[in-house]
Amino acid sequence: MAIKIKRKSRDPEEIPLASTADIAFLLIIFFLAASALLELKGVKLPLPKKDAPPMKIEKKNLLKLEITKEEKFIYDNKTYELNDILTIMEEKFKQNPEIVFAIQVHPDCPSKVVPELIHGMKQKQLNKFSITIKK
Amino acid sequence: MKLRKKRKLESIPVAAMGDIAFLLLIFYISTTMLTDQKPMDVELPEITTEVQSSPYPLIVYMNQNLANQNKVYFFNQEIPVENLSDALTKKIYELPSSFRVYLNIDQSVSFKHMYKILQELKEAGIKNVIISTKPKESL
Q: Which one in A24, B45, B87, B120 has a CA-CA gap of 20 to 30 Å to B9?
């Protein structure tokens, strides 16, 4: 005669999950600390279209200025510093809001002058300009 | 006789904390932008400008040494400036999302080199470029 042995009822086994929150938070802290925060700062320069024809601007609406290799600004045969030329440009813009600034840069002028000038112009709301190299 | 009620000890339920933590973790992992561009040390012009948020930055580097060789550093490679337009066009096709081009050029590099890069960017059909700067150090 077979005897049926009743197994003792056992509690279902459980995986201890109490520490998952700690592990997850540790992982979050790791990701936050390890991810390099890329903070990019700069001056925005719009570029002309690839095959755009040259713009035709009336002479009265054009103000030509040059940047020398010594980082000086030449306008009307006079030499200026950055802040002075920006003041002149602002005045000219107030007199004629249609004015476009044609800036010719000396090939050997340090490139830092360009973002400095653009930044100064943007602060004074002078947005119509062209930058080219002096030939 | 005063009967004292037995009160259960109050506790903050923390059972859902694990779920919240994992949700946060998934959020951080999915939003972290992975880039395979190794940066290059460049002496940027010191101008205090605003942060330009970018979906995906494509950074073109040039220092004095590279300028002397007429080369730029783009996506972990030194390439001739003349090839930048092609390299950019190729990269743009591979990108999953929108992008923005940054020019990290050493402040002492002459404008003729910057101009060549700008011409190449124009050739690649780039509409805007950010000339990278660093904030002025206060004395």
A: A24
- Taking residue B14's Cβ as centre, other Cβ atoms within 10 Å add up to 10
Cβ contact, residue pair B25, A119, below 8 Å: no
Q: How many CB pairs under 8 A join A and B?
A: 132
**In B20-138, which ranges are E strands?**
57-62, 71-74, 77-80, 100-105, 128-132
Contacts of A80 by beta carbon, 8 Å cutoff, 6+ apart: A72, A73, A74, A88
With a cut of 70, which residues of chain B have pLDDT below it? Answer: 1-7, 32-35, 51-54, 96, 137-139
CB distance from A116 to chain B under 8 Å? yes
Strand-strand pairing, A100-105 and A78-80: unpaired
Q: Does A44 touch chain B (CB under 8 A)?
A: yes
Q: Please answer yes or no on whether A47 and B126 come within 8 Å at the CB atom.
A: yes
Between strands A100-105 and A129-133, the pairing is parallel
Cβ-based contacts of B106 with chain A (< 8 Å): 111
Write the DSSP symbol of residue B79.
Answer: E
User: What is the C-alpha separation between B99 and B77, in angstroms, rounded?
Assistant: 19
Is A26 an interface residue toward B (CB < 8 Å)? no
Instruction: Give ipTM to 2 decimals.
Output: 0.74
Residue-wise pLDDT for A87-130, tens only, equals 999 999 999 999 999 999 999 999 999 999 999 999 999 989 99
Alpha helices in A18-112 (DSSP H): 20-34, 82-95
Say which of B28, B121, B127 has its CB closest to residue A31: B28
pTM, 2 dp: 0.75
Give the pair of three-digit tokens for residue B124: 């690649």
